[in-house]
Amino acid sequence: MNFATHLKRTVRLALPMIIARAGLLVMVAVDTAMIGHYGTLDLAFYAASNALQVVMILVGVGLLQGTVVLVAQAHGAGTHRDCGGFWRISLIHGAVLGIVMAGICFLGEILLTVIGQTAELAAGGGTVLRMISWGMPALTMWVATSFFLEGLSRPLPVMMLTISAVFANAGLNVIFIYGALGAPEMGAEGAALATSIIRWVMFIVLALYVLRLRDRADLGIGGAIRNFRQTARKLRRIGIPMGAARGLEAAAFSALTMMAGLLGTVPLAGYQIAFNLVALVFMSAIGVAGAATIRVGNAVGRHNSSDIRRAGWSGLSLICLIMAVFAGLFVGLGTELADIYTDDAAVVITAAPLIFIGGLVLVFDGGQAVLMGALRGVADIWLPPFWQFVSWWGVTVPVGYLLAFHGGLGTPGLMWGFMAGAIVSCAGLTLRFAVVSRRPIRRY
């Protein structure tokens, strides 16, 4: 398969995955914008809760990523009956993980206080997290189910469901944030309640879709699960380092958010707007990374080394083009983008330069994400997470802290630290994929 064919197939697979991933962040963006227009203090509460929620969600997603790796490799090798067993075992893992994450949410106020937030922010953020907790098990089981379908190269149902959820979530926000239709006016807490409801609806609908697939028997969706313990161990062996990598990255970004909170409510609100925009566009990278994992995993299943390399490099080429377009928009339209989120002039002035820097970050941050996806496809699971630790905690956090608090740059210093870590991560993972993609092929 030549490079152009790989690129075409990566685009075809990545596009619905990008839309689906972006849809999840669009929900967060809609929440942020609607809360921002409701009140700056509620926006700060939401930002504080998000700092913890994002870490948990990304760790959870990482822990479940063994699903897409095993399903993609089995699908590429033609052993389709194994795929349904992988999904059901992953679903059990997701349920347990979601319950644990819900319990952590109930400790939100204590955790926010421990990491240095003011009593007011900790109390407000903790209230939001308690409302978020009810939807955590649904979210993790939905992730497991969506990974199963994507591993089969069937991302369209996930995309369509996510698009529908964005509109439904916005409608519930009107009811619960602003108190429409006689409901209580709940602000940021109402947005969290709406999100939890939508997450359960998304999981139930997607699970019913899988259970009604025409080829469910061929995929092993019904009947006894073969090699339960062996498969569960495989999922955990792949998932634990991937969850660690996601957690290290998310924790570093949350550390930057917490530092912004130490600078004041307005700097925190401005930073949250800029970071939300970066995270929204980053969903393009997550979508392409997912496609790279599947395309590389299929090539591993076929034992085709040249396809492994071309699948990985085509994914990197695609994300560089996408991110360059968005970078231009961020650099040129910072103030206009900030205006979407808030009516507070002070917050807009704070956010605009951060959005400019965020545009420069996008290409490197997108590149490292896709390279991580390609390395997941070959089940290279230990060195990449270590390199993420070096990049985010050895570079991003200390550089951001020094520039913000000792260099006198404030929140722009935090964003420059983000860029430094993204460059280091992207460079190291590029070299790693170049080496690993030329090794003898071994299906996990």
Walk me through the topology.
Blueprint: H1 3-38, H2 40-63, H3 66-77, H4 81-106, H5 108-114, H6 119-133, H7 136-151, H8 156-178, H9 188-211, H10 228-262, H11 265-302, H12 305-332, H13 334-341, H14 345-377, H15 383-406, H16 411-436
Description:
The chain is mainly α and 444 residues long. The chain has one domain (3-436). The protein has helices at 3-38, 40-63, 66-77, 81-106, 108-114, 119-133, 136-151, 156-178, 188-211, 228-262, 265-302, 305-332, 334-341, 345-377, 383-406, 411-436. Helix 7 crosses helix 9 (188-211). It is globular and about 55 Å long. The protein starts with a helix and ends in an 8-residue tail after the last helix.
Question: What tags apply to this protein structure?
Answer:
single chain; mainly alpha; 16 helices
Short description:
With 444 residues, the chain is mainly alpha-helical.
Number of helices: 16
Number of domains: 1
Rg from Cα: 21 Å
Beta-strand proportion: under 5%
For the termini, the CA-CA separation is 23 Å
Mean pLDDT figure: 84
User: Order of helices and strands, N to C?
Assistant: HHHHHHHHHHHHHHHH
Provide the structure class: mainly alpha
Largest sheet: none
Overall geometric form:
globular
Low-confidence stretches: none
List how many beta strands DSSP finds. 0
Tell me the helix content.
over 70%
